[in-house]
Amino acid sequence: MSEFGTLTIRGLSEKPLSYSNFLSLIINYKFQFNLWHSSNKEVHIMVSPQKLIHLQNYTRAYSLPLEVMVSNVQSLIDGEQPAKSTDDSTFGWTRYYPLSAIEVFLDEILAKYPAVTTEINIGTSYEGRKIRGIKISYKEGNPGIFIEANIHAREWITSATATWLINELLSSTDEEVRSLAENHDWYIVPVLNVDGFTYTHETNRMWRKTRQPVEGSACIGADPNRNYNSHWMESNGASSNPCDETYGGPEPFSEPEVKALADYVTSIKERLNIMLAFHSYSQVLLSPYGWTSELPENHNDLTEVAKAYSDAVKELPYDTVYTYGSTANEMF
Hints:
The chain is an alpha/beta fold and 332 residues long. The protein folds into three domains: 5-78, Alpha-Beta Plaits (2-Layer Sandwich); 91-281, 3-Layer(aba) Sandwich (Aminopeptidase), CATH 3.40.630; 282-332, no CATH class. Helices cover 33% and strands 19% of the residues. It is built from ten helices and eleven strands. The chain has helices spanning 19-28, 49-61, 73-78, 99-112, 156-171, 175-182, 194-202, 256-267, 299-314, 327-331, and strands spanning 5-10, 33-38, 42-47, 66-70, 117-124, 130-136, 144-148, 185-189, 272-277, 284-287, 323-326. Strands 5-6-8-7-9 form a five-stranded mixed β-sheet. The chain has a four-stranded antiparallel β-sheet with strand order 2-3-1-4, with helices on one face. The longest helix has 16 residues, at 156-171. The protein starts with a strand and ends with a helix.
């Protein structure tokens, strides 16, 4: 990975060249790039240094500003994990853990809080791994909240956030947290893309897709987030090229992990009021729809919730700014 840097291309919405057209052009030009973030104002991509000069010439030709954000991504990966210590036997949130450690954490939680926790078995991955989760329920009749994390393999902080949330819902003494925990049923799947997640720990830190081979192609996997049987391949963000990171798969639900999740959620849909999907990178709160710029009937309600979240986070010491809106309008 040491040959990659990270670039941002800003101001796309102010230029005659749209974001989607820009991506199409650089794909056709066969740039080696990895999309990290896209919006209607800027794009963040990781590109090989061999193609950097070509990209610079290309963006200059279209009067697109270009800025190098990170010159060596491998240096960030190398510094991602702290040195091992005697505390490594205890699960915590100062480092990232492989799937096996997350599963041990779930087992320990289930053993420690048997009265309010239940194991969730979503299904089995292409490579035969169990997709596990946990239900936290303090009383009957609570509205349900479903949380899915690490559908994109390399987004490790999402499963870290999910396990942290599980721990907080069970152990926090804060009155507001206790109210949230005890007055909702929580269904949390820390790692959905278990094969890809394992691959990021063992082989390629930047892997994003599933690990199922694609018939007729040397490329592996599909983007599970674009494999659902809902307006499949209608979004500007989905690709039909098996080698692309946003490849939607040969057909809807081709990826067993996605089909398993959809079947499980369908089986409990009457109990659910809220569904959340954790992703990184970027600070955005995305609501339906992704396949059309038209807005759902409850868009105003979703915006009100998103604004409340964004305002609350802005008040924290980190001063983090979250933008929000429908996926199609915010990202494309």
